Amino acid sequence: MSPVSATISGDASILEDNSDAARARPVLPDEGSRLGFRLTLPAQILVLFIAVFPLLMQLYISLTDWSPLSGHGWWSAWSLWNNFANYTDLAADARFWSALKRTAIVMIVCVPAEFLLGLALATLFADEFPGKRIFYSILLMPMMVVPAVAGYMFFMLFQSGGPVNDILSALSGFPVTIAWLSDPTLALIAVMVADIWQWTPLMFLILLAGLVGVPEDQIKAATLLGANPWQRFVTIVLPKMKTIIIIALAIRVIENFKIFDTFYIMTGGGPGVATETISVYIYKLTTQDLIWGYVAAIALAILIVLSIAAVFAMKRMARAREVPA
């Protein structure tokens, strides 16, 4: 063999060895992913600190009698340690349970009403009709109104000489001067009407997104098989929307515990405590009574309840995805 041939043969064998080595070499982790993780790590630590520190501070304050008037900074609240006295007081606080009961009443009335109205509107807007874009924009406007502004709007609407009584007077033919916001029952109805008006568009928007995602071919197949609109809705549309429905209901149930602006602007929790929800009650304890240790205990208890509700909703969503529609 000539020297040139030997050299070529040697180079070829080296290349084959290198290629075998490259194939045998283990695949290293993606450097790009590791770099991305390192770059975002400071931000992740900051977000974790922002989320965890207030929670730990709240737990710490809830085990003390600390308030801004105690003469100590919050870091010295340990000198006012009361173990779990705030939580035992919470269990015996009749006003807290009344506020929680009213919050539950508002949730039981408003959330189903918003869901049914939102579902009906989503079904209507799933089809094309003249002026759809204009009506769509008008329908979403209540959701864009600041809750405090919405509260003031309905405060004016439900005055004794307001538009609501004027409309009732025109329909009935005799003067109507109902004191909506002075009667405990009527005041609660008025604030619930305001909540339904403002947040039905959110329910509509979520449900419409789920409705347009239902496979059109399945609906057409059911139509060819002779299914009427109600049968198609019950057997095809609703099962396909299980996850979206759970998400929509979970969002509104959790948000219901945070209702404050509209209720406080309209009634201030009154007359008396007739419309005092849990958020309004916490606000009054915080700004008027200044018993922040007790407030921290209430807020932490509500957080635990809502977390359990969120976990339950997530499990229901997981089961909805696993069960074939």
Structure report:
- It holds the Pfam family BPD_transp_1.
- It is a multi-pass membrane protein.
- This is Multiple sugar transport system permease protein.
- This protein is an all-alpha fold.
- The protein has 2 domains: 2-62, no CATH class; 93-322, MetI-like (MetI-like fold, Orthogonal Bundle), CATH 1.10.3720.10.
- The protein has 14 helices and no strands.
- It has helices at residues 3-24, 31-62, 85-91, 94-125, 132-144, 147-157, 163-172, 184-211, 216-224, 229-240, 242-256, 261-266, 278-289, 292-322.
- Helix 2 packs across helix 14 and helix 4 packs across helix 8.
- The chain is globular.
- The protein starts with a helix and ends with a helix.
- The model is unreliable at 2-9 and 21-28 (pLDDT under 50).
